[in-house]
Amino acid sequence: MFQKAEFGQGGAGAVLWLARSQPSVPPRRVAVDWRDRVKYWAEDVNLVPDLGHNLGSLTWFRGLATCAALCFVAIKLTPDFGALPAAPLAVPSPSDYEEIRSQMVTPLALGADSGRHMAPTDAVAPLPQTPERPTLTLNAAIGAGDSFAHALSRAGVSSNDIEDVLARVGSDVSAGSLTPGTRLNITLGRRANRNVPRPLDALDFRARLDLAIALRRVDGVLQITRTPIRIDDTPLRIRGTVSDSLYRAARAAGATPATIQTYLRVIAQQISLDRIGPGDRFDIVVANRRAETGESEVGELLYGGLRMEGGKTLDMLKWTSDGRSQWFEASGVGARREGMGAPVSGHLTSSFGMRFHPILGYSRMHAGVDFGAPYGAPIYAVNDGVVAYAGRHGGHGNFVKLAHGGGLGTGYAHMSRIVAYAGERVRRGQVIGYVGSTGLSTGPHLHFEVYRNGATVNPQSVRFMQTAQITGRELMAFRARLAQLKSLSNGPAVAVIPASALKIASR
């Protein structure tokens, strides 16, 4: 076993005194190299201890000193990022700059030529002003909420020319008749000087699907040419089979979203849409106008059919009866409407039955109900009917009586003004007069009565139910129209007529 080594001074290196464990053996002196000495010292002394342990000890402070020394050395050795001194660049002369600039990409980006620019010669003379184009050709469009005059003004047409154009096309183009997206092909001519607008030389646009208008300036005066365009009005039939969705199947077959929405509302009047499933077949016929030039306009829904897998068949046709358009089944039965409409926008102030009359001063039968409403408020027909009476009627004042069929009738009293006339056919919700205080009345209100076979009944106990029905010759015409639409083939049948066959209207 060896004991602790001691360091001493030596000529060639350190001297290490070692002693054996036996006391009888004298120590002997061994020479040690300096590398062994450093290695021995480094193993005994830890310069980089863990600073998280033994806080405050001599070993911890030794590690802290080592860390501080390393940080100091790193900061002192940080390089400088300042500018390095260098020789300045030579400033190019104006001629050198122009030569370099002409060969860069910048002139190309600005629309100029590349290469060296030559100096002007004596043959070059400056112009007093830049020459203008003799004509300008513009293409404009009418936007949503835009007007014909505003679109022309936006394109640079003068106000005088706009007034002239509107005066010449006034019989063909009314306010708001041009649909958004209508294209305007405009040609502006040469102007006398820069202080006046360019004159309108030509204007072409499509006034309607069946009419094209062209204006040309001849001898200083605008002249108009109307070109009629032949139109095929054959309805468009769209059929298909429902897959996962009726809407998607109809869209894939070519129906517009608006047409499909209308079709679904019509079908929903008869059956629940939840019952429509894969395998059911839909049948849609819409009004369609197709011009010989290829443009087309899809109109309203005319017929909606459905063939279900269970065998149920539904045919709905739009038909105008008594001046009112509505949907009817193939049997001629229309939609059913239940309940009365409100005769006025007001609140109930007096009910049906015996009451003390505020003017006569005694109790008597109140044969209707009263609605409080402001003076002049509109009064509406509660259901379709015919005006049986309209005029002055004793204590009722200005009075209107409607006959609704089936022995039912309604009366409207104390009006300030009557707008219906005897014998007139009115519709549900149509205005027949205005609230007033004529007759035996203490203030503006509506006295409303309901009659069953001529006798007054409590209006709150009556619910009208109306079902439209087509009969007689009208039913025959209805079924003929239905058969005609169902016989159409898919897609529009259009006979294209050459444009050379058109007769151009005279100027």
TrEMBL record:
Give the source's domain of life in one word. Bacteria
The record's section on InterPro entries has:
Cell_wall_metabolism_enzyme, Dup_hybrid_motif, M23ase_b-sheet_dom
Q: Which UniProt keywords apply?
A: Hydrolase, Signal
**SUPFAM superfamilies per UniProt:** Duplicated hybrid motif (SSF51261)
Q: Where is the M23ase beta-sheet core domain?
A: 364-459
GO terms assigned for molecular function: metalloendopeptidase activity
Listed Gene3D superfamilies: 3.10.450.350, Glucose Permease (Domain IIA)
Q: Which protein is depicted?
A: Murein DD-endopeptidase MepM/ murein hydrolase activator NlpD
Origin organism of this chain?
Sphingobium subterraneum
